[in-house]
Amino acid sequence: MTTRPLSRRAFLGALGLTALAGCSASVDAGGARDQAVFRPGEYRGPQVRLEFWNPFTGGDGPAMGEIVDRFNVAHPRIRVVMTSLPADSLYTKVVPAVGAGEGPDVAIMHLDQLATFAARGTLVPLDELADGLELDGDDFVPAVWRNGVYDGRRLGIPLDVLTMGQYWNVPVLADAGVPGAIANGAEFGTTMAALQDAGIEHPFWVTPSWQMFASLLPQFGGRLFDETGTRAEIASPAAVAALEWMVEQISSGVSPAGATDPRPPLKNGSAAVLADLPATIPDLTLTAPDLEWGVAPFPRIGPEPGVFANSHHLVLTDQSQADEDVAHAAQTFVDWVSRHSEPWIASGNTPARATVRAGEAFRSSPQAALATEENFAATVFLPQIPQSRVIAANSWQRAVGEAVLGGVDPTEALEFAQATAQEELDETNELLKS
Amino acid sequence: MTQLMTGHEARRLDDPPDVTTRRPLRRNSPWTALAFLLPFFALFVVFVIVPVGSAVWASLHRWSLGLPGRPWVGGDNYAELFAGTSVTSVEFWKGMQATGIFSAGSAPLLIVIPLALALLLHQKFPGRTFFRAVYFAPYVFGVAVVGLLWHYLLDRQLGPVNQLLRAVGLPGDIAWTTTLPAGWVALIGVTVWWTVGFNAVIYLAALQDIPKDLYEAATIDGAGAWRRFLAVTLPGIRRVLQFVVTITIIACANMYGQSALITQEQPGTDTRTAIGFIAQTGIEGFDIGTSSAMSMILAVSLVVVSALVLLAFRKVGDLEQ
């Protein structure tokens, strides 16, 4: 019998080589396109399928589902398939998925994420498309429209605006003899004192909410970064004052220490006032139907107006432009959703378009209280800085956590955050240049 | 004997293999073993060797997902991490330290408690099967279920754990999920509760393999319970013990979900583990090069620890002989 003299070593070696050959294959990022090309009129071509990703996994999911259903009925040639993923998951998957052509054609992204994904070539600029659709910002909340731009290019069409607000238990405040909405720092103090006198031990719970910090920061005259996006200003006296205000609520006993979930105590009556985002609205409606609550803009605690704001933007991915039909259908979808966002009111957010806000559906919604010109003028959006969320997690958001939960001195926490943010900012800017 | 044989076996004995039409299985040829191993080896190559090779390759480049260009930087990523001066490297070593604290706290408990539990469950008593199931039950939950559940149970103000402590007159104001060292106690406690049954089942199988006559002989020689444990039980489960120690250390060092969900890496980022920071750098921050280098450092550390465990067991084995 003859056996071929292939030694065991050679056999294993051959397998190893096959494995190494596999290593060198990898996904390359495609070169980003300059602009999404505008195509006049609604899409009328052959049947086409659009992948639509959004981060609406909570009470806002059904509202967006309703819009998509309506669109699909009105457009038999386009079938939009909606995928809702948790925001973190969406943002981690979208770059490789779009790079491989297997991601979304249209997506919803938070305004503060646009720079990050534009820099990585995932998003395609929409200036020509917005011009063609005659969207010049006239119908939109001005600050939201202005902030959807990075590096001189528009990256999204705003769907809504969401701002930090105050929510309160109406009967509990009435019993304590204090009026509903708190306007400023002095009123905040008297309301808290009255509530504590009425037997609410901790009327307002301070959690490591970076949105609260980002609301207080401009009120004390500070900002996170300079206007060029190259210098961090996180350890300014204003930032220290803002963070100290949060910590003081805990040391004075207004808030308990170590709190992380601020909504349950409002629902069960152990707290009376809450600062939170508009996602609170569908949550309270659904899970605390017997609670009588009110909502108003975040109080002006510091000397200046200011409130943390964000916005869900409709964006087109680079992938959508690879096929002419898909690109045209995606443009049709973005334009239609922007103009027909009434069902979105159920999400608790404020539609970005004045024409939608003018409708009865919005004017009778709880969040109409947040849609005042004064509140819109006070909005402060996180700046368009690539990698801003990673930088934030390692710097200022972490400082908020350390000071509120870990007992670290606010100045010390913010100084460390400043050094960290500056270094990561420099690194990112250098990486983008190279 | 014959009546116990199955039909298949009987037929095989009756008709000797037909050498002319079918070649016999070459039991002694090395190719036979390799051929049988090949299907799994193919999976091993695709899902282990290739990814590890890719990670090594990626760690030698400055590679940020989506950005054009991916220059070869050699060992720069490693040099930066070992220099320990940049934010990324400081945070990485902090994560490694958190992983170390967690592993040092939970691995000994996950080696000793399941062994004690297995010894108990190895006894004969009514309801034994029930208790075996009870201690294994938490292991069937996924990390998401365990994480969310305990995040609420351990909440400082609203959680039932503090309420129970208060009810029995103990300090019931502990911030389990937001302060240190309570956060570590919570993470280690939950992990022990969650995975204790898995190691116990492995120990139990090993205990059942120790011949009963060894215990009888030891008893006749006058050995007490403790002496029997040291002289019969421990040597009898030595191989399994080594296996349990190794996989437990590796599992502890790979902890991520519990701190992401229960403590949410608070306070600040103090309970963020190495894996947590690698995931943040690579998956959220798209820095594939640096995060791959971190993964390699973690992996090599685990190889070293596993080798030390192996050596320690050999040393102890040699001393005994």
UniProtKB/TrEMBL annotation, chain A:
InterPro entries: Bact_solute-bd_prot1, SBP, TAT_signal. Keywords: Signal. Gene3D superfamilies: Periplasmic binding protein-like II. This is Sugar ABC transporter substrate-binding protein. Residues 1-21 form the signal peptide. Pfam families: SBP_bac_1 (PF01547).
UniProtKB/TrEMBL annotation, chain B:
Its main location: membrane. It comes from the Bacteria. It is a multi-pass membrane protein. Signal peptide: none annotated. It is found in: Cell membrane. Residues 1-22 are annotated as: Disordered. The keyword Phosphoprotein does not apply. Keywords: Cell membrane, Membrane, Transmembrane, Transmembrane helix, Transport. The keyword Transport applies. Pfam families: BPD_transp_1. The chain crosses the membrane at residues 31-58, 101-121, 133-153, 184-206, 240-257, 293-313. Belongs to the binding-protein-dependent transport system permease family. This is Sugar ABC transporter permease.
